[in-house]
Amino acid sequence: MFRQRLFWKLFISFWIALILFAVGVLYAASAYLDATRDRYDGASPRDRNDPVFNVAQTAADAGVDTLKAWAKHWDDTELVPVLVLDTQENDLLGREPSERALSRLAGALKNFNEDRNNGRPIHRPPVVLPDGQQYWLIPDFQGATLSRLISRPRVVATQLVLATLISAAICLVLAAYLTLPLRRLREAAGAYGSGDFSRRVAPTLGRRKDEIVDLAQSLDNMAERIDALIAAQRGLLRDVSHELRSPLARVQVAVGLARQRVGDQAENELARIDAEMDRLNELIGRIIDFSRLDAGLYVARHEALRLEQIVADVADDARLEADAKQCVIIANLPAVAPYVGDAALIASAVENVLRNALRHSPAGSEVELSLDSDALGYTVAVTDTGPGIPDEMLDKVFEPFFRVDDHRNPQGGIGLGLAIAKKAIVAHGGSIELKNRTLHNNDSGLKVSLHLPFIEQTT
């Protein structure tokens, strides 16, 4: 049970806040009652009672109805009721006096008569009506109940405000104590979601020991294990790709020697081996490129370049593949202001997207390539008339080696083109947007937009 440290901190903190508030209320009520009692029973009661007595006597000078109105107003607004009693122990408002109030009246009458008979100054005179009727102001402390305090909070307003402020300060400190580590946990979770597993939370929480620290330590351990697994996966992918290059080169040499020895007798078979080796070589090259981008080993260069020329060069290189499928690349590449970025990365991104569009476009179709600019940066858009991508898979296609289905990839795409393109664009602080489109003739298609924000040139 005591391992639930945060539970006890919350419980004790709220308990202390409530106790302080209750103590403040009780102290305020007690202080008010003590002040009222001292004012009535003190050594110089007349001096202390002057304000109340003078107001009551002024009301009495106007008649009994005015005195009743004053007594009613006092009873409605003050915590301690003041009884207006005559010598027959009757209250002017018809209230029932308590035994202690009657005892106080008897003492007041006794002192009044003794002071008057002995010629001494009268410490507590009665309130006198114009007709000579006398009334004594007797506070009824037993009438100061909790219900009267609740209905008349202004009498202890200062103390109540002080108690409230102290309780609020405790709750504020507690809220900050709880939300600060939770905010750090949220920021760390956001960093993990974006692929940054280097963030650690527990060391930033100091010496506190509670369930939040336990959660932070568990989260840190999880991030450390995931980071290690991803690093191992990246290393394995990179190392295996490099190791495959050597036997692949030897196979290519062996095929060349075999072609020289057998001549044209096995040309078809050797040509097929060459094609598969080229495909394997391309796969290895793309894996290495992706590994370098994913691991952050490739540092993007920031240099001024002509973006429309880079895109045009990529389009020219892809036209050979387009001609083989009888597809047409329609390029709309207006001259734009120089862009600051990495030419190799941008060309790689555009090339992967463009070749992906050609691969999935039907024979004899058109692939549009455009370049636009606005106040935020540039947008390179590639639009095809292929089958498109199911909406629920638009985000997944950026994962390495992910392929939608065999119909989408009839020529055996390896599923790295869009992953490499996204890494290259993200390295420039940009983003990639995929959008399915429906053409006027009910054909489908996919539009891939590469957004490149402006980057200030650094020296």
- SSE string, helices as H and strands as E: HHHEHEEHHHHEHEEHEEHEE
Portion of residues in beta strands equals: 5-15%
Rg is 45 Å
Structural category: alpha+beta
Distance between the terminal alpha carbons, to the nearest Å? 61 Å
Number of DSSP-assigned strands: 10
Please count the helical segments: 11
Provide the spatial order of strands within the biggest beta sheet.
5-7-8-10-9
What would you call the shape?
rod-shaped
Number of domains: 3
Q: Main sheet?
A: 5 strands, mixed
Mean pLDDT: 77
Helix content: 55-70%
Low-confidence stretches: 42-49, 406-411
Task: Describe the 3D structure.
The chain is α+β, with helices and mostly antiparallel strands and 459 residues long. The chain folds into three domains: 5-155, no CATH class; 248-294; 303-453, Histidine kinase-like ATPase, C-terminal domain (Heat Shock Protein 90, 2-Layer Sandwich), CATH 3.30.565.10. 56% of the residues lie in helices and 12% in strands. It has eleven helices and ten strands. The chain has a five-stranded mixed sheet with strand order 5-7-8-10-9, covered by helices on one side. It has a three-stranded antiparallel sheet with strand order 1-3-2, sandwiched between helices. The chain has a two-stranded antiparallel ribbon with strand order 4-6. β7 (366-373) and β8 form a beta hairpin. It is rod-shaped, with a radius of gyration of 45 Å. The chain starts with a helix and ends in a 6-residue tail after the last strand. Residues 42-49 and 406-411 have low confidence and may be disordered.
